[in-house]
Amino acid sequence: MQGELYTQKPFGEKGHQEFSVTKMLAEQAEYVVLNGAVGSLTTEKPLRARVGETVRIYFGVGGPNYTSSFHVIGEIFDRVYMEGSMSPPATDVQTTYVPAGGSAIVEFKIDVPGRYIIVDHSLSRLERGLAGFILAEGPDNPSVFKEGNAP
Q1: Host H or E run for residue 108
Q2: 93 near 77, Cβ under 8 Å?
């Protein structure tokens, strides 16, 4: 889940954070996060996968204001179920739009090991805490980087 936090104190300030109605009404979030906290899917609990596995992410935006240009750096979504609908999916999608209060389901196969970064492609939000990692382990597969060798 992606969401925003509107605090009276600036981003990174330690201690208790009081809610700011003024910042919420102006849509000036101090934090934009995954699963309710900075670092929740990076240092604390990154997602894990193995080469050859298909990853499925159920992604939602709790808002209350921002939309998301949901993207995983280093991947193309094989299938995207828009608005959380299980209707026939869009295929071969790089970034998908998820409105405030909306959701999407994305699937992709991990072809090579590495650290894949979950972002909102409104990349300034990285500086407000919005990032997640997928750590993929398994054998190298250099053939996917050669012309004509589509996975």
Answers
A1: strand 103-109
A2: yes
For residue 141, give the amino acid letter: N
The domain segmentation of the chain, as residue ranges, is 2-145
CATH architecture of 2-145: Sandwich (2.60)
| Nearest residue to 141 (alpha-carbon basis) of 118, 113, 106 | 113
All residues at 6 or more sequence positions from 26 whose CB lies less than 8 Å from its CB, including other chains = none
Tokens encoding 90:
């869009």
Q: Is the dihedral of CA 123, 94, 107, 81 positive or negative?
A: positive
Question: pTM higher than 0.90 for the full model?
Answer: yes
Q: Tell me the per-residue pLDDT of 6-56, one tens digit each, with 9 for 90 and over.
A: 999 999 999 999 999 999 999 999 999 999 999 999 988 999 999 999 999
Q: How far apart are CA 137 and CA 80, in angstroms?
A: 24
Which residue in this structure is represented by tokens 């993929």? 136
